[in-house]
Amino acid sequence: MADRFRVACMVGDGIGPEIVPAARRVVDHALVGASAAPFDWVDLPMGAEAFAQLGYAIPPENYDVLAECDAWLVGPHDSASYPQTWHDGPERVPGAELRGRYDLYANIRPSRNRAGVPSIVSGVDLVIVRENTEGLYSDRNMYTGSGEFMPTEDVALTVGLFTRRAIRRIATAAFELAAARRRHVTLVHKSNVMPKAFGLFLEECRALADEHPDIELDDFLFDSMAAHLIRRPQAFDVIVTENLFGDTLSDLTGELVGALGMSASLNAGDRYAMAQAAHGSAPDIAGQGLANPIGIVVSAAMLLQWLGRRGDDAATTAAGDAIEAAVDRVLEAGTRTRDLGGSAGTAELTDALVAELAATS
Ligand code: NAD
Fold first, then answer.
1. Which residues pair with 149 in a beta bridge?
2. For 158-183, what is the HEC assignment?
3. Tens-digit pLDDT profile for residues 307-336
């Protein structure tokens, strides 16, 4: 058996304390079922409760602990749960801090139809590859200080950052992913109004397309892509784009194939990866046992596959594959949460996933 992976677990805000333990339970069962080494879980505080008790959303002493882990399973952040003093302070939102500090530059967000899940469209199987460390999200793109500032009380300026290095590596991630899929990369940009920033995206993607003549590259403006994704989402395979555009389009594609609550998301760099579902803290349903755990469960499955590939550990990869397959079978059999038109709660769906893993291992 391979060495045990050390994985930090931070539940976060809103529905986080409901869905993160659910995902962890599914992961533990899948690892046993695949005869993989169990994880060494490291529980760490993060979120509004951590701020209330310890004065920080992520206590500073935890950064060294996080750096000693192989990966992290993380719940959502809820801006509204923090007092104004926190918003006025120096801390970035946890997601931004973790992605920036540990250089988790590739945010991989797949959306595909699953049998048994009612959806607006069918036949969709695509992945959004979102640049995660700069772009139009001003809180992501400064070494120190804020990328937003107000020279007067009536004027707000916000900084966008686009570097050739970051663009080259996210485009490379997209081409590598496409090579293992349907060999089609679509760049989403806005070069008509930001020709310099998105000119870099176009140049780097075209250079990679020259190096990979077997991979098709096309490109669309961000606004028209919103229409194309509704009209003919089946036409897309791997979509690469900057931070804000990727965040926006992935909510759209998640909802197209079912609901945002089942949208998975892996934040990966060269050294670390973090599973954190695409959705937010869902304050409207928090604490009621209604949250759909599938987004974070599939994010965790992607994390297992990433760890397995990186550590050359076939059993951990197989555990991730087993979770993916169990999600398909449970949904097809009709166990669905309310956001997917069903009546199951978080616990019932998690129980069904665990039972499915036990039945098939
Ligand atoms: P949201 O994603 O939390 O919720 C949007 C809608 O989707 C709501 O109706 C919610 O009930 C539903 N939903 C989301 N996840 C669900 C799940 N797992 N199961 C069932 N339904 C689910 O977006 P919002 O309401 O705009 O944002 C709430 C908070 O989340 C904000 O403070 C925002 O900043 C934060 N947020 C955090 C992250 C993150 O930490 N990664 C991402 C997005 C938003």
1. 157
2. ECCECCHHHHHHHHHHHHHHHHCCCC
3. 999 999 999 999 999 999 999 999 999 999
Residues whose CB falls within 8 Å of the CB of residue 318, separated by 6 or more in sequence, listed in order: 34, 36, 308
Give the tens place of pLDDT for each residue, 177-199: 999 999 999 999 999 999 999 99
DSSP string, 76-101: ---GGGS-HHHHHSSPPPHHHHHHHH
Residue with structure tokens 């959705």? Answer: 279
76-88 pLDDT, tens per residue?
999 999 999 888 8
Contact 301, 13 (CB under 8 A): no
Sign of CA dihedral 117, 77, 61, 166: positive
CA 233 to each of CA 185, 189, 198: distance values in angstroms, whole numbers, following the listed order: 13, 17, 23
283 lines ligand 1 (CB under 6 A): yes
99, 140 Cβ separation under 8 angstroms: yes
Nearest CA to ligand 1 atom 10: 282
CA 44–ligand 1 middle distance (angstroms)? 22
- Locate the ligand 1 atom nearest the alpha carbon of residue 80 and give its number: 32
